[in-house]
Amino acid sequence: MSVLVYIENIEGTFKKSGFEAVSYAKTIAGLLGEEVNALSIGAVPPAELEKLAQYGADKVIKIENDQLKQFINQAYAQLIANVAKSTGAKTIILSNTFNGKGLAPRIAVKLDAVLCDGAINIPAIAGDVWTIKKSVFSSKAIATEELKAAVKVIALTPNSVETKEAPVPAQIETFQSELLSNDLATTIQEIVRATDKVSLPDATIVVSAGRGMKGPENWRIIEELADVLGAATACSKPVSDAGWRPHAEHVGQTGLAVSPNLYIAIGISGAIQHLAGVSSSKTIVVINKDPDAPFFKVADYGIVGDAFEIVPKLTEAIKAFKN
Amino acid sequence: MKILVCISNVPDTTSKITFTNNNASFNENGIQFIINPYDEIALAKAIGLAANGNGKVTVLNVGEVSTEPTIRKALACGADEAVRIDAAPRDAWFVANQIADYVRTNPYDLILTGRESIDYNGAQVQSYVAELLSLPSVAIAKKLDITDNEATIEREIEGGKEVLTVNLPVVVGTAEGVAEPKIPNVRGIMDARKKPLNVIPPIEVTQLSKITSFESPVPRGTVNLIDKEQVNQLVELLHSEAKVI
Predict the structure, then answer these.
(1) Which chain A residues touch B155 with a CB distance below 8 Å?
(2) Scanning every residue of chain B, which has its alpha carbon at the shortest distance from the alpha carbon of A317?
(3) What is the number of structural domains in chain B?
(4) What CATH number is associated with residue B31?
(5) Dist CA A144 CA A251 (whole Å)
(6) Are B237 and A301 in contact (CB under 8 A)?
(7) Which fold has domain A2-184?
(8) How far is B14 from chain A (nearest CA, A)?
(9) Model pLDDT for residues B10-23, shown as the tens digit of each residue
(10) Digit-coded pLDDT (tens) for B30-76
(11) What's the fold here for domain A200-322?
């Protein structure tokens, strides 16, 4: 038996969350005494596929098919389930990304599996019953859950486990699989990707700003700080509601939940709804001119003062540090 | 066009989340329940699409009788009728099976849910329902337009967006951008009392997972406040203490 981990690629490249999933699969496979099969779907260069072996994928299975140039959740779920059946995998792991959320429940139905979405730790294994933790109530709590079916699908929250190098010789195999037309009912018309920006769900550092910035024209200093840190930019709900920044940047209870290593909140007071989406960040820095802003209560580091004065200074200090 | 909007009854976004029963259950004491905010977006979109005699909106909730005020609010916003499947919503797998079973005998052109509920944050129901019914789906939609029998949907992808088209019927999880949530007016609230709310029994579903306990996140220590003239000190601490840069 083996553990199957599906690694999503973005235009032929794997992301950090994918390597985290391989490391996670390797640890679980170790507990089970099984091997890790890593599955890639779509056109990915051999050198990129070999990277999966660096993190311990005993075998890399690739599916390249002209019908599958772009992600269609029905078709991808069918292929992942086919590979799971043909390799006898009872544990299927993937990243809980935008695409992963559309895939995991479908795979679970096809394999009569139990699904744990948004897992944040290595499960405790007692025969067929596994105990695992996941974040609930928009990160206001953590739940411990028992998974009872023989087949398990686990969607791993990005940035919740470390990547670990565990090199094995790269062994790449091609898997052939037919698709039914019903699985290809969706037609992709257009993809727009800002390749010059760090994507928010995958970012290890996030620079986020709120109403304290007073207007969209003032975001240049936020972007400059993000650039020097290699960070993604984010914002609070009032900012995206006002149209100062796109909805895709909204983090919080009704926006995106993020858990980067470093979250820098600038001019955000820290309403409970905002904190819900960011409180699992490893380190939180708050810059706010109001010393009573609730955000300071959940921050690791804080500076009380005017963002327009402090943020450019911080950017310069980080530039100097990096040199 | 027949549109089904599946709604969850969730704690208000400002709720303090605590637990009882030896941390095995969510403490509902003093909690105000609302329509899940993402489901409100789905509801507003459905009402907009069905306006001017273009369709009919059914709102569906899997819940006990205590969720009826939330369902009536959805009717007050402009849904035409409601269905309550009479059971505690044990988990996403249970809820999805109830919805799929209902849709098998009551087909819809468009099935909407929110992108996720703000209590269990699973984002599972829409994809479970789609798979159980062999329908296409979009888990997180940012825009949704319907022309004749075709939906054009914009969805979020890492670092950008994707636009896709698909023939109805389709299952869509809606996020911000699809529509602005509606606030019911007095007329809507009056009308809602007369609209049909059908209660139907649940089907049996095998339980595959169970939450055994909850815990609150570990609180952070006291904030380390740094003088605004000493920005360098923050950089040093982020490097040597927090080890994040």
Answers:
(1) 98
(2) B232
(3) 1
(4) 3.40.50.620
(5) 25
(6) yes
(7) Rossmann fold (3.40.50)
(8) 6
(9) 999 999 999 999 99
(10) 999 999 999 999 999 999 999 999 999 999 999 999 999 999 999 99
(11) Rossmann fold (3.40.50)
